[in-house]
Amino acid sequence: MNIHEYQAKQLLVRFGAPVAQGHPATSVEEARKAAEALPGPLWVVKSQIHAGGRGKGRFKELPETAKGGVRLARSVDEVVRHAQEMLGNTLVTAQTGPEGKQVNRLYIEDGADIARELYLSLLVNRETGRVAFVVSTEGGMDIEQVAEETPEAIHQFDIDPLTGVTDEDANAIADALQLNEQARVDMIQLARSLYEAFTAKDMSMLEINPLIVMDDDSTQVMNRGRLRVLDAKVSFDGNALFRHPDIREMRDLTEEDEKEIEASKHDLAYIALDGNIGCMVNGAGLAMATMDIIKLYGGEPANFLDVGGGASREKVTAAFKIITADPNVKGILVNIFGGIMRCDVIAEGVVAAVRDVGLKVPLVVRLEGTNVEKGKKILDESGLDITSADDLDDAAKKITDAVKKG
């Protein structure tokens, strides 16, 4: 689950992270009041959507000269003008795709004078099973670009869960970021705070880009050389949300795909993609293999959907309805290897769903495993236009051929 920047910062403040003052706003009037509540003389108006690259984004409805989902303002009136242009309009960034996302809320934040921009993130290193800090002196840039152009500028530090962030860990991170004096002191405390937040709230990713060193500005004497979290992006492990009702309350359904929302109601693992072949599979590994072989035959998967190992007929029916609700789907591949999941249950669910919503696109079903013959018999006797496949290779070839012809 993802949250907005302002929510991430509100959370990090609770763990002691240095964050500027700021207020969310869902209307122009709220934006004005937020700006008036901040000291100035510099404000930052930030579009709040679940996507990166906001600063370089553009609004579909605005002229090219009014681009940018993150803007500086030097007066309350300028804050209001930015809010008027942003709210209700569609922001397109490198991560939203060409369709973009509508901006429904803003974050009005106190500005900062920046001396240096750094990159810092925490994630789980799958190879070691430990939380890792990934840091770079090249903040403010896409980390993928840094990794490609200057990989030597990226440093990783795995943290021992038995000790947490030690003095040695924190100093190593500060060294990698070339920090000294007050910024080094701040980094040692910040590393511990972020690690505590990450583990306590079951985060899957915490990214601060940029983490800044404040400039030597005479109007901010107390902040000279100090660190500040200028942006924050946080994702949580969905399987652990039952432990965090406060985090669940932060969920913004307007930022999520309607089909993914519906899937979550039925405990289905569903991710919408850009292709035209809908997939219903049991098991994440098999689902990935199914998408790969569809692409091998020249097709494009429209989704990742794992119905799980013990899905009921009702769950399968719901999954099928979600797939057919996507207008981009021009064909459907059901690929089930029955272990715990029984093939006859899958077949019953598919038949029930087709009879309920109709079948307007080619449907190929490959069943193998527990009760496979019962499952095939249910499909054969249904009277529906369903194509059976002998194996995954055969299934992928049949569905891609059918979609190309259709």
Description:
This protein is an alpha+beta fold and 406 residues long. It has 3 domains: 22-110, ATP-grasp fold, A domain (Dna Ligase, domain 1), CATH 3.30.1490; 114-248, D-amino Acid Aminotransferase, Chain A, domain 1 (2-Layer Sandwich); 258-405, Succinyl-CoA synthetase domains (Rossmann fold), CATH 3.40.50. Helices cover 35% and strands 24% of the residues. It is built from 13 helices and 19 strands. Strands 8, 9, 10, 11, 12 and 13 form a 6-stranded antiparallel beta sheet that branches. It has a 4-stranded antiparallel beta sheet with strand order 1-7-2-4, with helices on one face. Helix 10 crosses helix 11 (343-357). InterPro entries: ATP-grasp, ATP-grasp_succ-CoA_synth-type, ATP_grasp_subdomain_1, Succ-CoA_synthase_bsu_CS, SUCC_ACL_C, Succ_CoA_ligase-like_bsu, Succinyl-CoA_synth-like. ATP binds at residues 46, 53-55, 109, 112, 117. Residues 9-235 form the ATP-grasp domain. Substrate binds at residues 282, 339-341. It catalyses: succinate + ATP + CoA = succinyl-CoA + ADP + phosphate; GTP + succinate + CoA = succinyl-CoA + GDP + phosphate; (S)-malate + ATP + CoA = (S)-malyl-CoA + ADP + phosphate.
Secondary structure topology:
Layout: H1 5-13, E1 22-25, H2 28-36, E2 43-47, E3 58-59, E4 70-73, H3 76-86, E5 90-92, E6 101-102, E7 106-110, E8 114-125, E9 130-136, H4 143-149, E10 154-158, H5 167-176, H6 181-200, E11 203-214, E12 227-229, E13 233-236, H7 245-248, H8 258-265, E14 269-272, E15 277-281, H9 284-296, E16 303-306, H10 313-324, E17 331-338, H11 343-357, E18 363-369, H12 372-380, E19 387-388, H13 392-405
Parallel strand pairs: 15-17, 17-18, 18-19
Antiparallel strand pairs: 1-7, 2-4, 2-7, 3-5, 5-6, 8-9, 8-11, 9-10, 11-12, 11-13, 14-16
Helix pairs in contact: 2-3, 5-6, 8-10, 10-11, 11-12
